[in-house]
Task: inverse folding
């Protein structure tokens, strides 16, 4: 592993020589210079990780050198070296952007700790910058396929909502495209050049979720061997998307409400108030108003999150969009696979009549599997899963004919579970997501209905 690089800048030759020797003994790669001008040349040429910079230098002062280093290589951390009479100036240097200061003569072990902390901050800043560059999604509008009235209404609403900074609650069934809607809202907002950060609330345990959202201080809990910024800090200036917001605990709900109200929060284990400028988008497939009535979700938080509600229609309500999407997926997948296969009319008929409990995500997986299984140039019904070949047409949305028997609640639940299992090809985790329940709850219901294989 390459040793960390340090630059020592001090006009006292004896101090400079001793410090360079001791730091080299600790395993650092050390360069030492005597003037601010030399320091700037070294920083530009070698980009050291940490600079130990004396406040009092001939010609170019330490403060002037600090400003020049920040302008040339912002990623380099600077620790100021000062005497007892210059502490006020050292504090001013921290205000300008220095990481810390030490008073000479400084015990080597204390200086070593300060350098390690400076390197930790440098690493965290680099991580945040990498995330920021990688978390700015393009405008996905061209990949939003559909021509149904329901879909056109959704796109029109997105165009009206996107330019505002209002909080948006996106609702819809699993697989209907809630995250893509959130990305499009961000891409068409004034924050589009800033990060778009996705948080999977349902995938993280309570303590881990709070640490991910708000960050933590070193030693805040077992295993927290270094400080870590939260995703709200990573998203500063941009948008944070909280997926499955209905899964968060009351304690996290309280902290989220505080961020919405004050734009501030604290690291886990920290006391300092951190202010951010973040737009919050959330999504859920759960009935949050019902959760509010049951006391499972804070009413005040729901009203703040639901400033603008956006409902994503299920695929079964989008009519001809099923065929448009299927053809689009086939085109994209043909390019990926280097093939030229078409979906035959008989297969299209089965796609049109399917109820699509897994929505667009399920359709994509069905088309991909069909293209892989198809040995010829045309996808036939036998290339589709049995759940589509044996399915009945989607149930009408209007009232049942007079006198038609209603299924019992147990029968309806058993049918829904069976269809979800078939749609997910036996994958219980995906089936649970389709049904909007936990995998543990699904297992219990499978046992109750005698559907365990």
Result:
């Amino acid at each position: 592993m390459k040793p960390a690089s340090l630059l020592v800048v001090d006009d006292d030759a004896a101090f400079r020589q001793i410090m360079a020797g001791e730091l080299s003994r600790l395993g650092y790669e050390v360069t030492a210079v005597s003037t601010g001008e030399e320091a700037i040349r070294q920083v530009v040429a070698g980009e050291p990780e940490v600079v130990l910079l004396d406040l009092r230098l001939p010609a170019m002062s330490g403060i002037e050198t600090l400003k020049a280093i920040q302008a040339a290589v912002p990623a380099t951390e600077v620790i100021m070296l000062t005497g007892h009479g210059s502490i006020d100036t050292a504090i001013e240097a921290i205000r300008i952007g220095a990481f810390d200061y030490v008073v000479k003569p400084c015990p080597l072990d204390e200086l070593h700790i300060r350098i390690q902390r400076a390197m930790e901050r440098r690493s965290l800043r680099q991580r945040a910058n990498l995330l920021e560059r990688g978390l700015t999604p393009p405008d996905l509008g061209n990949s939003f396929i559909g021509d149904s009235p329901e879909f056109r209404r959704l796109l029109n609403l997105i165009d009206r909502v996107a330019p505002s900074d209002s909080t948006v609650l996106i609702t819809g069934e699993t697989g209907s495209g809630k995250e893509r809607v959130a990305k499009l809202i961000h891409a068409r907002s004034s924050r589009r050049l800033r990060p778009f950060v996705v948080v999977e609330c349902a995938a993280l345990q309570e303590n881990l979720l709070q640490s991910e959202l708000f960050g933590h201080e070193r030693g805040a809990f077992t295993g927290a061997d270094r400080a870590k910024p939260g995703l709200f800090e990573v998203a500063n200036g941009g948008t944070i998307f909280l997926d499955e917001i209905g899964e968060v605990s009351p304690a996290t709900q309280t902290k989220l409400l505080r961020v919405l109200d004050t734009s501030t929060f604290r690291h886990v284990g920290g006391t300092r108030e951190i202010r951010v400028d973040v737009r919050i988008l959330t999504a859920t497939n759960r009935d949050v108003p019902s959760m509010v009535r049951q006391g499972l979700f804070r009413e005040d938080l729901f009203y703040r999150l639901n400033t603008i509600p956006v409902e994503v229609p299920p695929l079964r309500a989008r009519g001809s969009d099923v065929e448009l999407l299927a053809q689009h997926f086939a085109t994209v997948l043909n390019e990926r696979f280097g093939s030229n296969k078409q979906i035959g009319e008989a297969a299209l008929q089965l796609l049109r009549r399917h109820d699509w409990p897994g929505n667009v995500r399920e359709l994509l997986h069905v088309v991909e599997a069909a293209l892989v299984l198809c040995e010829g140039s045309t996808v036939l019904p036998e290339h589709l899963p049995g759940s589509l070949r044996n399915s009945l047409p989607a149930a009408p949305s209007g009232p049942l004919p007079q006198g038609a028997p209603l299924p019992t609640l147990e029968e309806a639940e058993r049918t829904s579970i069976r269809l979800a299992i078939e749609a997910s090809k036996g994958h219980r985790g995906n089936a649970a997501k389709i049904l909007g329940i936990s995998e543990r709850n699904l297992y219990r219901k499978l046992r109750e209905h005698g559907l365990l294989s």
